[in-house]
Amino acid sequence: MRKLLLTSALILAAQGASADEIRVLNWQGYGTDLDWALAAFTEQTGHTVVHEYFTSEQEMLTKLRTNPGAYDVVLINSAYTAQAQAEGLIAPIDTAKITNFADLDPGLTGNADLNPAGALHGVPWTWGLTSIAVNTNDFAELPTSLSVLWDPAWTGRVSIRDDGLEAVQFAAMATGQNINAITDMEAVKEKLAALMPQITTFWSSENDWNQFMSAGDFAVATYWSGSAARSQAAGLPVAFVVPEEGAIGWLDGLSIPASSTHQDAAHAFIDWMVDPEFYVKWEPDGAPATSNTKAAAALPETSFNRAVLGDPAVVAKVQFMQPVSDADREAYLKLWQDLKAAQ
Question: The domain 128-248+321-341 is classified under which CATH number: 3.40.50.2000, 3.40.50.720, 3.20.20.70, 3.40.190.10?
Answer without folding.
Answer: 3.40.190.10
